[in-house]
Amino acid sequence: MKSQEIRTAFRDFFIQNGHESRPSSSLVPSKDPTVLLTTAGMQQFKPFFLGIQPPPHPRLTTCQKCFRTTDIDRVGKTARHLTFFEMLGNFSFGDYFKKGAIDLAWRFSTQVLELDTDRLWVSIFEGDDQVPADDEARQAWLAAEGLREDRIVTLPAGDNFWSAGPTGPCGPSTELYFDVGEEAGCGGAECRPGCDCDRFVEFWNLVFMQFDRDEAGNLAPLPQQNVDTGMGLERIAAVMQGKLSVFDADLFAPLIDFICETARVSLGKDKKSDRAIRVLADHSRAIAFLIADGVFAGNEGRGYVLRRVMRRAIQSASVLEVAPPFLDGLCRRVIDTMGDVYPELKSQQNLIEEMAREEERRFGLTLEQGNAILMQAIESTRSGGGHTVEGEVAFRLHDTYGFPFDLTREIIRDEGLEVDEEEFDRLMEDQRARARASAKTADDKERQALAELGRVAKVKTEFVGYHKNELHTSIGDLREVGDDRLVLKLRESPFYAESGGQISDTGWIHTEDGKANVVEVYSLDGDQVILAEVEEGRLEAGARAKAMINRVRRHAIACNHTATHLLHHALRSLLGEQVRQAGSAVGHEKLRFDFSHSRALTPDELRQIEDKVNRKIIENHQVKAFRTTMDYARDMGAMALFDEKYGEYVRVIEVGDFSRELCGGTHVSSTSQIGVFKIISEGSVGANLRRIEAITSEAAIDHLRSRDRLVDELAAGLKTDVGRLPQALAGMEEELKQLRSAALEAGAGRIEDLSREMAGQAEEQNGIRVLVAKAGVDSGQLMELADRLAEELQPAAVVLASVAGGKVALVAKFSDQAVEKGARAGDLIKEIAPVVGGKGGGRPNLARGGGANPDGTGDALAKARQWLKERLS
After folding, report:
1. More confident residue, 302 or 591
2. How far apart are CA 744 and CA 752, in angstroms?
3. What is the DSSP letter of 134?
4. Edge-to-edge strands, sheet with 838-842
5. Are the beta carbons of 528 and 465 closer than 8 angstroms?
């Protein structure tokens, strides 16, 4: 039975038995901050299990996408462990319990799947000091037709007791196992379910949520007993297809075939390559599904989990010596295999392939050098009689070369050694402490006063600045912080407090006794505190005051903020709806917008984005703000910042009929007020994150005028008019080309003279004329010199190095006769490039490399001489 047939059969069986089918939720959990990613089928139903919300039906069934890293280091080593998998599940909320769940599981296993009852085993909870053995589950299994009593085994809490965490719902579980045969086992006399070998495949886990654990660890019966079951599709598919490993079943076959065909390897020939093949097959599925569900490779949270998996996959590809790019093609095969069942894979195909390609390129820049450093550390530890690689090595690989720590640890353990994790953790904490120290601001005293006033003040400020630019109010509380500065709270305030990426308003506060300039306004849990600087007189708590915002500055901020919404719409319109806002900074001088995208935007794309935004400005769309419920805003399609926390009621900014976003900032009332929009920069701020900086209104007009002045000055300097500027520049470029050509001709004569001079230094080794030398030329001339020498010395092995501008350039040029004797230029450059702090490679006849350590040039050439002597002897 194929995987798709199992999915369908499972769904149909439970619908026939009174369940409502629900779709898989995203791998990014919705409204669940306790976990980074969806790890189980029950996760989307946690509000129902916890009694927070009523379930839509007392019986539900799903096929859920899941991702876990708890056993990531075992992937590829065993026949059953995966990171990404599909979980078939049925759930009961106060409906059936142990007897009903066991009956349904047994009937589906034996009547629908027609599994041989002689090969089925079950485990139940054996009991402990708090909870007795699960006799209720035992009795239910004894009633199952065809199950022998000796096939029921008891296991401890580690195997058969489930809990949602240290507190909360928990209860015993029971599991179904299939005996795949002695050939897959450990051969032990006591081998049975619970053994860590691959003989007994646990394919279905039934969890009975029976108790509630409090903070003291005490258990109390739950008022409503629930059932949560999960059957791994990959495992049951392997069982149904008679395979000993999940990697041999139909879901993985197309991926394994692609890997083996591309790498020109096959399963079963080598333990190390077998594991690499399986890791690639598993991790490629995880990569494709995570990206499809909106996860982008990064250095924190979900992004780091994805990057970690991608880099493990890339390292496994290097084990198989597969030339990049490879990962994008493998992800394409995942999409071909599973895209019909999960259409989000097809809709996000371009993004998945692009991101896989980019991460492979980025990590590929450091992978080879990092591997060399790690292997050197392993050999050094061994030769010194040690068993533990220094934690400093793992830290350097993590910090400089991007190696996830668990990958480093895994490679070291595969070599029979350990890594000093305590030292690694200490170095990481030292780095974090340095980062925290450098992040401290000079305004600590003022910020402490702001926080203190926000905490103790009895007055809560009412913000009225959406509709009022100035008003009469009173000072509710006040603290002086020195140097004529003070922090205060107004009863009503027109000043917008910094939040949501928008800077605060500035302005003025006047009382009968004094005047103050508003420097900044801070948001504190729905309240605000003002930092002000006294201009004259004094301000006192309780005094009547007139508060006025800087209207010109507010308008500039509003123009920039509405422009970010237009920019967001333009980006999604041009690049695709996978583009997501990752942050913004809205000020009065410019706007900054961070968004998810895996590559730099082309000049044409930037022009199109500018055009789209300016078109919306010219069309003069109305900008509306209104408050509504979060649910209604979501139904309207309003976009929210990923991971931002929102209350029950939200403020929506609607621009025309094309843009709706949850936003608390200040905006113009119509797009034409923005005037003009101009992008001033676009660049990377991290892996798969881009940043656009732009200006609007008066700042944009000033920018365009300065460009006009620059063009005028350039035309005047070239003694031409603006319209003929391109022709004048083309003429200069042609003149420059002729000068360069003349310089090259002069340089060619020098290269010829140098070649004749250096050829005399060659030494013969086994019929090959060998020349290893440092040349006083730049990197651009080094290849030409190597070509001339190789031709003149034929048959030859030429290795040259040059140093210029603090950089070392390396080149190796070998005749066919040298290659036939075992000397390969690419292998040589790979050996000597790390000595100059770099890397390189190439073909057997020609290779290049370089580095940033000129002091190592002599050692690198000496190593080249010895290497050639050994190969050519």
Report:
1. 591
2. 12
3. -
4. 763-765, 768-774, 796-804, 807-814, 846-851, 838-842
5. no
